[in-house]
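About this split. The held-out portion is used to measure sequence recovery: a designer receives only the structure tokens and must propose an amino acid at every position. Recovery is the fraction of positions where the proposal matches the reference. Here is one held-out target exactly as it appears in the evaluation file.
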């Protein structure tokens, strides 16, 4: 694997995201990341009288009516989050538009760096598990900017795997299930191109923790352009197939198969009670995160 260029060193990546992503998120979310990091698993702590700076969404209207003065709910949520990133780094994650560096792996690094930075600057701890053909590395959860840089450094050093048998995410989810004893916030970041069976450990993991799924995808995985005869290669196994993209029926079957797969994924996430962010390699990261935050806000109302 080639050494990172100066523009892709951990410091440069973090600096770029601080300016291009995190500052914009601060403005759009007004510094309130509760909708991203705190979901159904947050414990109710107490009630107190409303203060002018409080979020009106947390007013308890039943108590307010009885007391004739506004009261807000308080939650156990600050300063004690441990977040884990379960990261799929299998061969299919290196699919994407090479010319613009919009690989799924590149988007994964940007997303992890952004979320780790947001969490650690508020006093929380982050750790990670790397999965290639197996769980290859665990980075213990720690806080601080140095921890973010370590995550980025290790991700940049993680070699791209040769073609391999089909990915199986079950060992990654089961590793998290056995390793994380304290209730945690868990981000599962993958394209979920996997052998079946991962749905059950996902369900079990979400019973114990606050789990968020981030599904990475590329537009060419769901819709083929009409560009004539090409050789398609399976990103996981390396198997090659000669196809004619002029064939409208073939393109339609390809799209229908992608739609069935997406519907099955959405059903699996819904069954497990897991909020999922669908993140394209071509989508603006800020808009995607704000969209996800809005979705979680709506589901808690």
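Reference sequence for scoring:
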């Amino acid at each position: 694997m080639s050494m990172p260029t100066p523009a892709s060193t951990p410091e440069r990546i973090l600096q770029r995201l601080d300016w291009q992503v995190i500052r914009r998120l601060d403005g759009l979310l007004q510094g309130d990341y509760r909708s991203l990091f705190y979901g159904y698993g947050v414990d109710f702590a107490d009630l107190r009288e409303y203060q002018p700076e409080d979020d009106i969404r947390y007013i308890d209207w039943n108590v307010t009516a009885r007391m004739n003065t506004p009261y807000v709910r308080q939650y156990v949520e600050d300063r004690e989050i441990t977040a884990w990133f379960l990261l799929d780094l299998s061969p299919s994650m290196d699919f994407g538009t090479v010319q613009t560096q919009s690989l799924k792996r590149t988007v994964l690094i940007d997303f992890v760096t952004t979320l780790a930075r947001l969490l650690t600057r508020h006093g929380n701890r982050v750790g990670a598990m790397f999965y290639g053909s197996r769980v290859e590395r665990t980075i213990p959860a720690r806080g601080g900017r140095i921890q973010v840089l370590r995550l980025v450094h290790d991700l940049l050093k993680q070699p791209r795997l040769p073609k391999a048998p089909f990915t199986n995410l079950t060992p990654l989810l089961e590793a998290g299930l056995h390793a994380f004893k304290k209730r945690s916030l868990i981000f599962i970041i993958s394209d979920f191109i996997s052998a079946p069976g991962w749905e059950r450990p996902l369900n079990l993991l979400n019973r114990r923790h606050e789990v968020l799924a981030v599904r990475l995808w590329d537009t060419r995985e769901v819709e083929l352009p009409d560009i004539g005869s090409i050789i398609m290669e399976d990103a996981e196994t390396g198997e090659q197939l000669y196809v004619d993209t002029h064939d409208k029926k073939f393109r339609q079957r390809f799209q229908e198969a992608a739609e069935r797969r997406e519907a099955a994924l959405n059903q699996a996430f819904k069954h497990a009670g897991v909020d999922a962010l669908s993140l394209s390699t071509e989508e603006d990261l800020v808009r995607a995160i704000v969209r996800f935050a809005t979705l979680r806000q709506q589901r808690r109302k």
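Annotator remark: Confidence is low (pLDDT under 50) at residues 1-6.
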